[in-house]
Structure formats: C-alpha cells, structure tokens
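Because discrete structure vocabularies remain unfamiliar, it helps to consider an illustrative case, giving the amino acid sequence and backbone structure tokens:
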Amino acid sequence: MKDKDNNYWKAKLDDQSYKVLRESATEIPFSGKYNLHFKDGYYRCKGCDIVLFDSSSKFDSGCGWPSFDRAKKGTIKYKEDRSLMRIRTEILCSNCDGHLGHVFNDGPTETGMRYCVNSASINFENK
C-alpha cells in the first residue's frame, strides 16, 4: 500500500479523506461523523481497511475529534510533528502511511493516552 501514487489515492478516497490521509490535513473540530459515535464495533483505516481501534477504547474527550485510549497492536506508526510551533506526535497507519491524527499523553483512562483521530481517516464496522 505504501507504494501507491497520488492518482491511486485520489481515485480511492473522497476529497476530505484524501486531504487528511495523504496531505495530513485536519478536519474541523466537532464536524466528524465519529466524534460522538459510540456503537459497538471496529474503526478501520479508510485508506487500507486494517482495524486500528476497537470501540471499547473510545471515549468522549471533548476535544472535537474521535478519541481512543489505545490502538490495536502494530497498527500505528509514530512520527514527531513540529508544526504549529510545538512538538506533537503524529499517528500514521502502519500499513498505508495514512495520516490519522495525533496522540497525547493526557488521556483520562488507565493508559493515560488520547489518540485524537480525524473521522475522515476511518470507517466504522459493527461487531
């Protein structure tokens, strides 16, 4: 998946998902369809369809984006992001290198993590 070119991604993804997954854009807070979505199931990468998060790890962080306290093992790559004049940790799909969002160590659960994910980068599947 990592060797696919921009033409492949533009044909596969809608405009917003392309901007997020391939150009590291961020959707407007509180605008994504999965922000306040709490059904039982799995959240998959919209680029390559691998399962990234289970609904049991989702919580309402109030930040305006879907938040999870843990990812499925081996599905996320971490990259230092120095944009916006601060250091953050970008999260990418380990299979297709799609930008998902950022992870922070200020989560309220026992993991202490808050994976802040763009709805445009994921799809939901019922269990």
About this structure: The first strand starts at residue 41 and ends at 45.
